[in-house]
Amino acid sequence: MTPSPSPSSIAMDLGDLIEIDAILPSMKAGTKKQVLQELCEKAAERTGLSGRDIFETVLQREKLGSTGVGNGIAIPHGKLPELPKLVGVFGRLNRPVDFDALDDQPVDLVFLLLAPGGSGAEHLKALSKIARLLRNATTVARLREARDADTIYALMTERSAPGA
């Protein structure tokens, strides 16, 4: 039996998925659809793909079942054949929104994960890493308190934020 990875190895790997410019620290979206649109537009900026295509892909996945996993957290995701590598976008909402979450609680932390079309195992491993990070109550509390992208990025990758 292999030992489970330490929280730091999980966080360090997230640095491969997300960059500081892919973090929206104070989203003003008021609905699930607006949250997804805003995150997909940010993903479009990072990937050069169409924001509309990304949004449609994520929306189709969302129709299969909500990606609101509980405790105010959602991990929407989708696969795009033209995407060369895994890409993440994170948003912290100023006010929680209804996300049809499993626990019926509104969501204020959203990590959008996009994967290449043929990335079965890689996609699942990334989802698992994100879920493990966002199950850590201390990390989640700090993400909710964070006010800027640098601090959020540092928490996700366990790096020291400037001035921290």
Automatic annotation (TrEMBL):
Alphabetized InterPro entries for the sequence: PTrfase/Anion_transptr, PTS_EIIA_type-2_dom, PTS_Nitro_regul, PTS_SugarTrans_NitroReg
CDD domains recorded: PTS_IIA_fru
Pfam families given in the database record: PTS_EIIA_2 (PF00359)
Membrane-traversing stretches: none
GO biological process: phosphoenolpyruvate-dependent sugar phosphotransferase system
GO molecular function, one term: protein kinase activator activity
Domain of life: Bacteria
Cellular location(s): Cytoplasm
Record keyword Transferase present: yes
Keyword Transferase applies: yes
Location of the PTS EIIA type-2 domain: 16-159
Keywords, in A-Z order: Transferase
Family annotation (PROSITE patterns): PTS_EIIA_TYPE_2 (PS51094), PTS_EIIA_TYPE_2_HIS (PS00372)
Recorded GO CC terms: cytoplasm
The protein's name: PTS IIA-like nitrogen-regulatory protein PtsN
